[in-house]
Amino acid sequence: MTTTQADRDLVAATDVGDSPTATPTPRPLPADEVVLAVRDVRIRDNVGDREIVHGVTFELRPGQAVGIVGESGSGKTLTCRAALGILPEHFTVSGGTIEIAGEDIAGLTPARWTALRGSTISAVFQDPGSYLNPSLRVGAQIAEVVRVKAGLRRRAARARAVELLAAVRLRDPELVYGQYPHELSGGMLQRVLIAAAIAAGPRVLIADEATTALDVTVQAEVLDLLADLRERTGLALVVVSHDLAVVAQVCDEVLVLRDGEVVEQGPTEQVLYQPRHAYTRMLIDEHEQYGLERFLDADADADADADADAGTGAEADADADGGRAGAPARDREFDGVR
Amino acid sequence: MGTVRRVLGLVSGRLAVAILFVVALLAILGPLVAPHDPLATSPRTLAGPSGSHWLGTDNLGRDVFSRLLEGSRTSVVGSVEVALVGLAVGVVPGLLSVYLGRVFEWVTLRVADTLLALPFLVFAVAVTSLLGNGITQAMLTVGVLLSPLFYRVTRAATLTVAQSQYVESALISGASVGWVVRRHVWGKVLPPVMVALAYTVGIGFVVVSSLTFLGIGVQPPAPTWGGLLASDLGYLSYQPWAPIAPAVLIIVTVWASNLLADAIRDVSGEAGRALLNNRRARAVRATATTEPISAGGATP
Amino acid sequence: MSADDQQRAGDRPILAVEDLAVHYGAGRRRQSVLDGVSLSVARGETVGIIGETGSGKSTFARTVLGLVRAGRGRILIDGEDVARHKPRQWQALRRRGVVQYVFQDPLRSLDPDLTIEDSLVEPLLVRGMRRPEAVERARAYLGRVRLDEDLLPRLPGELSGGQRQRVAVARALVAEPGLIILDEPVSALDSANRVGVLEILKGLRDSGVALLFISHDLGSVAGIADRIAVLYQGRFVEVGAARDVVNTPRHPYTRLLVGSAPTLRSAAAARARREELRALLRT
User: Fold this and answer.
1) Stretch 172-191 of chain B: residues touching chain C, C-beta under 8 Å
2) pLDDT tens-digit readout, C92-107
3) For residue range B175-186, what is the model confidence (pLDDT) as tens digits?
4) For a disulfide at A244, which of A26, A240, A283, C70, Cβ 3.0-4.6 Å?
5) DSSP state of A182
6) How many CB pairs under 8 A join A and B?
7) What does DSSP assign to residue A242?
8) How would you classify the pairing of strands A65-69 and C210-215?
9) Cβ-based contacts of B176 with chain C (< 8 Å)
10) B298 in a domain, yes or no?
11) Which of A2, A49, A73 shows the shortest C-beta gap to B294?
12) Furthest-apart CA pair in chain A: how many Å?
């Protein structure tokens, strides 16, 4: 995995060139403002004295979702952390720029960061339990965020916290408000954290492996919730996962990161159906061979009625006609869905 | 054994071992090389350091240096006794408390709690008055009272291992409890027990010194570090510097024991291997800063 | 063993669980985990048990392995009812190595202080095999999981996650078992390693070893299982051929599982449907 600097530059350059961000998505946007812009960001490990992330570029507008796929150590988490201004101590952004709602983070003061975090950019991570104080009721912890960030008084903050718990579709928000973290399941904890993350009405939410530790059905619930928030409130999402399918479910654009390099980037459809890089093809093959797809493809027609209420997904609209020669079997399935 | 080599790989480990080695040497050879008879009195009382009396003489004119050397044997033997008795009494029940069922576990836990609750100095005084005033009696008592430390350390280490997946998978393969203890548990329990042992040796020195300071466990003319300290303190106005020598000896020895305990803890187990690997990696990096190091990422 | 006996042994399932019930605690704190479940695994068959956290899937595996006491019912391992076995009988059975287990987390399932060789030969040494012979066999099975022999003197800490999980599989194999139970064997691994391990498992299946997968994710085992059993709240709500369970799930929970498994196809299509099923399961 050692590459020379020249190699990296070359790859980074071609990546930027290939980047299909140039082809605009046809979907009308609620607002044309870029809420998060990551441009050719490079991250360096100062102790190991090497570059870990070799140029990541993407832009996010309200209501959009970008997915980053990669394995542990691919640099996906570092990229997110850079955007949040919470890189571990010995890592630095060594190149490129990150803008949050038009503001370059390079010149941000700690005070300005505090103001931005939570109210403009926010995040949820993998292990929800460790982000909550086990000795405080979860409601109080959300109310605290509301009081600090929105400046509400105690009573108003409590009402707002219950509202937020309802907004993340917890069934009995009043009950959950008074519960302690250990009384909640992993899925419920992750919802509580999402509630806390959206408490101050951020424009961007970064979900870094937020569903990885959850059961599949619960994972789907949380992903549905994110998609729902995005549609209802125009929240822009950065979804980070090791599973291409998870990302594909929620995002319009996908970046495939490997050893710190973006090996593939484009609209979800394009990445799924015309993968260019061998690594992306491997990720897809894994699903084809060992996942449900193996049966779903073979019995696409039988399965069509199961997915009959398709069409709610706006995702399927983008780039529908563009070159499908690569995967006839898969296309059949997609036709079935329509 | 790997742990010994790794302990010696640390500067602190080497220092601790060196100091303890010198102290042990003092205990063995000290009385032989002592320039004077430690019990012989002379008219030159409370003399300052001189060519023939390196550390001066005490209130009865006895050579302080010779008394220190002679006293080191009692102190070292005493503290080692404390540690070994604690080890012998504590480790086996600690191990068995995990495997021998609830009743044994409950009983041993209560006994350990009880022993912990007893103030060992007072208890040692009581026992020596019962069994006769000897250092061995006193140290046996203190060792038994310190054994809960070994019991708890062993039990905690055993519990962690006993619930681990590799022990379960050994059991699933048909391994007996004896096999599991020999193969998986012992190696994990040994390092913390060694830490406790080194630490207890340190406590032992303090206890021997304290007891002999109080005059318990030794007959008056016999020299010990604690006894020297006590008698020196009586003549503080004549020789204000006199307590320094025995005090420094006690402090340095106890410190070295604790340092050794820390060193063993640092290098044992997974974390220890990681620590040493990191050091090695850093050393390599330092020697070849110009050459970029391959990340050596995980290959499938 | 006569030819007739052999014939019968061949027909007999390697594992048959009948009406198994397991509970934890007693009295008022008694909590039923498995409530009368039955499942059989034929020789050479690959079965996936799918269930969420708390469904009882791990308890099922641990009961079959004798780590948890069965409350009621029968567990036949290679024809021998083990549900009431005493520790000695378990030990004897385990030394025959009929059933082996691969843990989810390869970081913790190998003793960090033992070399790979020591870990691999352990199941053989405990049953009294001589070390040289055991090492010989360990070498052979290391090759079978596509690992190099020079890993033998290494410690688990020096191996990658994928390598370690392969060692864990090799460790299960050296006992030459009839059945391997695997608890989420690939969920802790990266894509490349996941494919590698799954390929090895597929090879095992083809060579006649029965596999019992335990997972929360239908998608992760559907591709290699012959049959799938869906465990929900301590009962099997659906057992059938993998293809049928995936394509025509009958129970609402199975339908939710299929609809929830992240696939490259689903997109957001099934969102409304999932919502419906969740509401249905709640009642």
Assistant:
1) 172-176, 179, 183-184, 187-188
2) 999 988 999 998 887 7
3) 998 899 988 998
4) A283
5) G
6) 18
7) S
8) unpaired
9) 91, 126
10) no
11) A2
12) 60
Q: Which of B166, B180, B185, B190 to mutate to test the interface with C (most CBs of C within 10 A)?
A: B166
Asked if the structure places residue B121 within a domain, the reply is yes
Backbone angles phi, psi at B47, to 5 degrees: -85, 155
ipTM of the modeled complex = 0.84
Q: Which of C52, C186, C191 best tests the A interface by mutation, with the highest count of A CBs <10 A?
A: C191
Contacts of B298 in chain A (CB under 8 A): 73
Interface touch A50/B295, C-beta < 8 Å: yes
C222-265 pLDDT, tens digit each = 888 899 999 999 999 999 999 899 888 899 999 888 888 887 77
Query: Which residue, A144, A136, A48, is CA-closest to A92?
Result: A48
Q: Which structure tokens are listed for B155?
A: 């039990």
**Chain A adjacent subunits, 3+ CB pairs under 8 A:** B, C
Containing structural domain, residue B261:
2-273
**B165 and C103 in contact by Cβ < 8 A?**
yes
Residue A228 CB contacts under 8 Å (≥ 6 apart), including other chains: A169
Query: What CATH number labels A5-291?
Result: 3.40.50.300
Q: Give the nearest partner residue to C265 out of A282, A293, A312, using CB atoms.
A: A293
Interface contact flag, B172 C100, Cβ < 8 Å: yes
- Residues 6+ positions from B257 with CB-CB distance below 8 Å: B16, B20, B198, B199, B201, B202, B205
The C-alpha atoms of residue A201 and residue A312 are separated, in whole angstroms, by 25
Give the number of other CB atoms < 10 A from CB of residue B110: 10
pLDDT tens readout for residues B133-161: 777 888 888 899 989 999 999 999 999 89
Asked if residue C117 lies in contact with residue C152, where contact means CB atoms within 8 angstroms, the answer is yes
Chain A: give the shortest CA distance to residue B294, in Å: 6
Q: Which residues of chain B are within 8 Å of residue C189 when distances are taken between CB atoms?
A: none
Domain parsing of chain A, residue ranges: 5-291, 292-338
Nearest CA in chain A to B285: A48
CATH number at residue B265: 1.10.3720.10
In angstroms, the separation between the Cα of residue C125 and the nearest Cα of chain B is 9
User: Confidence class of residue A335 from pLDDT cuts 50, 70 and 90?
Assistant: very low
Tens of pLDDT, residues A267-314: 998 998 889 999 999 888 888 888 887 777 554 444 444 444 333 333
Cα gap C83→A21, rounded to integer Å: 62
Chain C contact set for A172 (CB, 8 A): none
Going by their DSSP bridges, the two strands A261-267 and C15-24 should be labelled as unpaired
The count of domains in chain B is 1
Cβ-based neighbour number of residue B241 at 10 Å: 12
**Which domains can be identified in chain C, with CATH numbers?**
3-98+177-282 (3.40.50.300)
> Per the CB < 8 Å rule, is A312 touching C269?
yes
Q: How many CA atoms lie within 13 A of C12 on its CB side?
A: 15
Higher pLDDT, C147 or B54: C147
Residue in B closest to A52 by C-alpha: B295
Please answer yes or no on whether C242 and A295 come within 8 Å at the CB atom: yes
pLDDT band (50, 70, 90) for residue A265: very high
